[in-house]
Design a protein that fits this description.
Layout (H helix, E strand, L loop, with lengths): L42 H6 L19 H22 E4 L3 E6 L1 H15 L4 H11 L8 E8 L4 H10 L7 E4 L5 E3 L4 H7 L8 E7 L2 H8 L4 E6 L2 E6 L2 H11 L4
Helix pairs in contact: 2-3, 3-4
């Protein structure tokens, strides 16, 4: 777990410096329990109900993971692909915050890189990584993101980490019609990463959309805002990012 005393320097080609949480991963709980069936709703209820209640085919399994030798043969090609995917999904919000929207491809790369670094060879070890990272693959109607506070010196940490307490609850997606989707963080996860006087350098957040909000998102004019009083920032999502994130929000069928 990254602590508040550690600075984070992100890289497009290297794995994050730590797993999303100590295992069993604490942030697994902030994703809803999926069910195979969806309750019957009226048309209006269907428009107003988050989409993430269906069973997803997006999660990774042991069959998706290459062994070390096989991965080394395709690693350079895959890394180049992921760099481009991350470019379309990465937003710089103000001077020290970066928000990276995750998907199946970015998490597969993360897992393969972690297994490579840790020289993990057992199925049990691979399953541990899958349990840690699968919750960060968004279901239809969701966006999942890693929030990085990018600090490179002790002075910056002393300045910014106390100022940004609560930032993991302060990200809001604002649609063209003015509707807002605020990020969600599990209480246990939040308590583990943020104290009253200092925050952590990495957070994991989720945005839940209704079907109607997904279609409004598709029309563009989308902003990502931070409404923390010590860090009021906003950025409009480029069209290519909107297009990219729609692949997360819309059903695979």
């Amino acid at each position: 777990m990254v602590t508040s005393s550690q600075a984070i320097v992100t890289s497009q080609t290297q794995p994050s410096p730590s797993k999303p949480a100590n295992h069993p991963c604490t942030h697994c709980k902030w994703l809803p329990r999926l069910t195979a069936s969806t309750p019957s709703n009226t048309p209006q209820q269907e428009r107003d109900t988050p989409m993430s209640t269906m069973t997803s085919k997006r999660k990774l399994s042991l069959d998706d993971i290459l062994d070390h030798r096989a991965y080394e043969r395709v690693r350079e090609e895959r890394r180049n692909e992921v760099i481009e995917v991350k470019r379309r999904r990465r937003l710089h919000l103000g001077t020290v915050v970066t928000v990276a929207f995750e998907n199946r491809k970015t998490m597969l790369n993360q897992i393969q890189e972690m297994l490579r670094v840790e020289r993990t060879v057992t199925d049990e070890g691979v399953m541990e990584e899958l349990r840690a990272y699968n919750p960060m693959i968004p279901e239809p109607g969701q966006l999942c993101a890693t929030l990085f506070i990018e600090l490179t010196s002790e002075d910056q940490m002393r300045e910014w980490l106390p100022k940004l307490v609560g930032i993991e609850k302060s990200l809001v997606i604002v649609l063209a019609d003015g509707s807002k989707i605020r990020c969600v963080v599990d209480e246990q996860h939040a308590e583990g990463l943020t104290r009253e006087t200092v925050t952590a350098a990495v957070h994991y957040v989720r945005f839940d959309f209704t079907p109607a909000q997904v279609e409004t998102f598709a029309k563009g004019g989308v902003q990502l805002r931070c409404d923390l009083s010590n860090y009021l920032e906003a950025i409009e999502l480029p069209d290519f990012t909107v297009t990219e994130l729609l692949t997360d929000l819309r059903d695979d069928a």
